[in-house]
Amino acid sequence: MTGDLFGLPPLPGLSSCEALVSAAEERLLIAAIDATELAPFRFQGWEGKRLTRSFGHSYDFDRGRLEVGDPMPDWLLPYRERMAGFAGLPAADFVQALLIRYDPGAGIGWHRDRPAFEHVLGLSLGAPAVMRFRRRMAAKFERVAVPLPPRGAYHLTGEARHGWEHSIAAMAETRWSITFRSLASPIGRPANADAPDGNMI
Ligand SMILES: O=C(O)CCC(=O)C(=O)O
Ligand SMILES: [Fe+2]
């Protein structure tokens, strides 16, 4: 575990870990994600290029509210345990799992994760990527770029989670990710607290 993000300027609230899973586990996880029915991310009638599937509590961007979907499959649970351990938090707090496949040309636009969630844990598989962070400071944006190496994990909380937007540029090669999120409060927040503040497409 490191807070220094491979030598880049630290972003308070962001910590990362270079190899949370082995190459063999990475292959199994990619196969398990590909064996799961994924669908293009939907946002208020728009379709994104990345393919996603969530389990447990999920935020429905079309309806603008938190919903409870299918339970997490068993193969995800040991990884939820390991990632929560890396963050020093109880695994059971992570009530949402999100699987994403970014094929070439797919990325994720500038956004903050929905306020219904608090801690965000991410695991990167496949092609390396860069997570870009920005926040508006007076007239210009302050920016930080954080490498997301395959098999590495990151934990977003505090300032990095709430004070900055993040995005991933369109991928040239396929990347898969697994994200676990905890709820901001035991019952989440009202849907009307969740007005979108970024382009999720
Ligand atoms: O793919 C990732 O690691 C990040 C995904 C993300 O930012 C999100 O789903 O909110
Ligand atoms: Fe995000």
From TrEMBL:
<keyword id="KW-0223">Dioxygenase</keyword>
<dbReference type="InterPro" id="IPR005123">
    <property type="entry name" value="Oxoglu/Fe-dep_dioxygenase_dom"/>
</dbReference>
<protein>
    <submittedName>
        <fullName>Alpha-ketoglutarate-dependent dioxygenase AlkB</fullName>
    </submittedName>
</protein>
<feature type="domain" description="Fe2OG dioxygenase">
    <location>
        <begin position="93"/>
        <end position="184"/>
    </location>
</feature>
<dbReference type="Pfam" id="PF13532">
    <property type="entry name" value="2OG-FeII_Oxy_2"/>
</dbReference>
<dbReference type="GO" id="GO:0051213">
    <property type="term" value="F:dioxygenase activity"/>
</dbReference>
<keyword id="KW-0560">Oxidoreductase</keyword>
<dbReference type="InterPro" id="IPR027450">
    <property type="entry name" value="AlkB-like"/>
</dbReference>
<dbReference type="InterPro" id="IPR032857">
    <property type="entry name" value="ALKBH4"/>
</dbReference>
